[in-house]
């Protein structure tokens, strides 16, 4: 009986320690640049972190024209690639020196379709490019 109680108590303490270790300390004067913040997650994050640059959250995304590739136009591919991939690269390259100077962080919100392409159109290739670009920064 006592052994079970000690194990449960130990697990509770371990969980609390783990949760505390995930909290970033000393976040004063650290701020984040967020793309794709007109609604949803990006909007909520932007409202909370509206100050100076410490990090970059690439949240922008454009997905239209799902279906077989034969149904897609070059313009649909181009728009997806421009917003999802080239826009992300452009913002990151232009702000990378500021994030590095602040010893900040860069976060990419991509898609599972960036790893497993099950739909046609430019969305999956653009998100795969975001995944590859993010990996290249490590």
TrEMBL record:
Extent of the signal sequence: 1-21
Keywords for the protein's UniProt record, in alphabetical order: Signal
Recorded superkingdom: Eukaryota
Pfam family, any one: adh_short
A biological process from GO: steroid metabolic process
SUPFAM superfamilies, per the entry: NAD(P)-binding Rossmann-fold domains
UniProt entry tagged with the keyword Signal: yes
UniProt KW Transmembrane keyword: no
GO MF entries: oxidoreductase activity
UniProt similarity note: Belongs to the short-chain dehydrogenases/reductases (SDR) family.
The protein's name: Uncharacterized protein
